[in-house]
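Q: How do we represent a protein-ligand complex in a form that can be generated token by token?
A: Start from the inputs.
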Amino acid sequence: MTSSQTVLVTGGAGYVGSHCVAELLERGFNVVVLDNLRQGHRAAVPAEAAFVEADLADTEALKRTFAEWKFDAVFHFAALSLVGESMRNPHAYLHGNTVTSLNLIQAAVQAGVGKMVFSSTANLFGMPERLPIDEDATIDPGSPYGESKYMIERALHWADRCHGLRSACLRYFNAAGAHPNGLLGEDHYPETHLIPLVLDAAAGKRPHIEIFGDDYPTHDGTCVRDYIHVCDLADAHLRVLPLLEERSVRYNLGNGKGYSVREVIEATERVTGRKVPVKVGPRRAGDPAVLIASSERIRKDLGWEPRFPDLDSIIGGAWAWRQRNPQGYRGPAALAAE
Ligand code: UDP
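Then emit the structure tokens for the protein with uridine-5'-diphosphate bound:
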């Protein structure tokens, strides 16, 4: 499928956003990335995409962007996205994520854009009552981060009811891995996610990985998560677009299989051939014991299937990218391009 449509990608210099941009370009879309580069990396945006450095809080910049291009759809990734940080500073999330998203929704409605694909989260489901978690599970966000995403889902619901802006809310479980082209990967500062931290411990860049609690009611006492390849997430974003001609949708996106923190560490040792030093620490606030997705709905509606479901391959891709880019996007190649 190729396209001559033009799309806006907010947060397109970030981890999931940049992988989605790559997928969009590959399928022939004209892409405009808008990013404030606070978390994102300029080097993660390919030259084929137009780039606007702006914050969604800046309504004038938004107006200019929507006046300069006529967008067929908006992909909205830009957000603060750390559960732990949101527990320490709820206002930044409840205010920051929602105000910026409301600005974007308003700008899209005013410009007559009919479709928005929104990056939501499994954190909507807090401490789930049953597993795997499908779209009908009770929503009770686990943190101000999750709550802010839910508030935006509700704003999108009303934007559809009142203005006909169709949306797809995609609730990601644990995004992981790197693009097979070797150019894109996961590079947060500071890094808080398990897989990149375990890889750093394997590479000797960190003295050890700390396991946040080993007294959970799981088979080995450590938390279980559903790790989904970032390119599979990107694929889902594109598949939902035609459906938005008809209606708004919500989908949970995961592999449907859970791995414990210890299993991720073991897989990393297998893949890298290195020993990962481990320390067991206390639980992290807000962590549910188990999060596993049911993605039956999107499989049935759109034939979406994870193309990279295997944990060892997901970790292998992330390892290859980190080996090639030991300083992430701030390595020599990226610095030269700045
Ligand atoms: N985790 C851990 N040590 C770390 C980072 C994460 O034990 O240094 C655990 C965390 O408690 C969770 C899992 O690894 O159970 C995945 O955490 P991550 O932050 O990657 O994603 P989240 O599940 O919070 O979205």
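The pocket of uridine-5'-diphosphate is lined by residues 83, 174, 192-194, 197, 209-212, 223, 225, 261, 284, 287 (CB under 6 Å). The first strand starts at residue 6 and ends at 10.
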